[in-house]
Amino acid sequence: MPDLAIIIPSVLNGLTTGALYALVALGLTLIYGVLHIINFAHGALLMLGLYAVYYLNTRFGLDPYVCLLIVPPAMFALGYALQRGIIGRAGHGRDENILLVTLGLSIVIENLALFFFKSDTRIIDTPYSFEVVQIIGAFVPEPKVFAFIGAFVTAGLLWALMSFTDLGRAIRALAKERKGATLVGINADHVYAMSFGLGIACLGVAACLLLPSYYVSPQVGQGFVLIAFTIVVLGGMGSFVGALIGGLFIGVVEALSGLFLGESLGQIGIFAIFIVVLIFRPTGLLGHKV
Amino acid sequence: MSDTLLEISGLRGGYGAVEVLRGVDLDIASGEIVALLGSNGVGKTTLSSILTGLVSCWGGAIRFKGREIQKLSPRAIIDMGLIHVPEGRHIFPNLSVRENLELGSYRRGRANRAKNMEHVVSVFPRLSERFDQKAGTLSGGEQQMLAIGRGMMAEPELLILDEPSIGLSPLLVEEMFELITTLNGEGLTILLVEQNVLQSMEIANRAFVMENGAITLSGTSAELMDDPELQRSYLGLV
């Protein structure tokens, strides 16, 4: 049994990674909760966000955290345009069509990325990439601490938007009652696209927070999106708090099973827990009964 | 007749290839309660859905406040003050009562949101006891009050109430019709779409009876009460 000096850093590492998983899952669960579609293009769009941060940093010398002012709004606009221009239009209101459209989008985006950016794995260099912070005796890389804080701030902002603004109320109203929403004058196409845009903006934030301690390649999104799907199902489809808790939980499980089973088997723990949870709580940890 | 608020002439419409409305003529003057009566499936709900732009109109004209609205979007129609409280309520079950009312003024009446909410609560005091409760947990009668309250938040000039008595106990139906009279007393013009013929005629100034997608009878409530045709088909008299 490894002692606390090894377990604590591992848990902290898992929590910081988990916060970013949560952010990716938050976007996914928002889109699922409102549009009732599974966005298969989520990973590919995260990858685009990471490249945006990468090029803003290497070409224009912008700090990844300064990119928070540029990349999330740009990703929001991209998400809005994708939903309004392609996904909503090509879907014709049928879930299976929408599923295939987002899957197709992800294939197109990833292959365009391969063509333009090549398959090289790239990293950026920041002055704080190797700085560490000491937390209860463990050393945690600075970018991971920022990522943890940033993910929670973003989740908080999203929660406030959903709770206290007319847009948030309209998004929640539309998720359950489309006819009622139309009758109070909510433009469903617009609000659907806003929801999709917000979900994709979360990926923009995740990209800015992630790159200082991670890498980018055309396939980088795939690993994230599989874990994000797991988190969304685990937390309860469409549940915000579920996605947050699920993200942190999965991050810690991954880190601890990596510690005990070896790095290459780390993800086994995630899916083992996933299966166990679904056996006992088919609607996820915080999901509502259908 | 005093000034006409809504005038429908030769209205046709339906779903897919099925024509439901085959030329409907109807008019409502400011300040009236007009009842649109008829049994299930004659096209009453289709008519109110076309009025608010939910279902597209195939032919004929709808004039509201003197302007043709049959080609307008639901949003543009709401902006003009024609508000539809649908059959089946369609409130937002996952939102609180307060949020449901707030969304009632999503487009129209936003500036007076707080004032209008006070007014709604004064008309439906029961809603204030449930203010922070999820609307899906309300009883059927409370949900109907919420649906009407949500409609009132948009400062309607014409309020379409589609089957407000459906699924309510006789006592609650009585209460609901009294409330509708109260709202009308405050100056609100109401189109009451109902199957409940007798009670609707008691509170309505005039009524239109619909059969098979067209108006077959119309007149003041008093005239219609004496109409042998209506007595035979709807009131089970004679």
Name the beta content range of chain A.
under 5%
Report the count of strand segments of chain B: 10
Derived structural class of chain B: alpha/beta
Strand arrangement in the largest pleated sheet of chain A: 1-2
CATH fold-level assignment of the domain at 1-81 and 157-164 and 189-238 in chain B: Rossmann fold
Which ranges of chain A are low-confidence, i.e. pLDDT below 50, for 5 or more consecutive residues? Answer: none
The geometry of chain A reads as: globular
Rg of chain A, Å, rounded? 19 Å
Kindly state the mean pLDDT of chain A as a whole number? 90
Helix content of chain A: over 70%
Largest sheet of chain A: 2 strands, antiparallel
Helix content of chain B: 25-40%
Number of strands of chain A: 2
CATH superfamily of the domain at 1-81 and 157-164 and 189-238 in chain B: P-loop containing nucleotide triphosphate hydrolases
Protein name (chain B): Amino acid/amide ABC transporter ATP-binding protein 2 (HAAT family)
GO molecular function (chain B): ATP binding; ATP hydrolysis activity; branched-chain amino acid transmembrane transporter activity
Domain ABC transporter (chain B): 6-237
Pfam families (chain B): ABC_tran
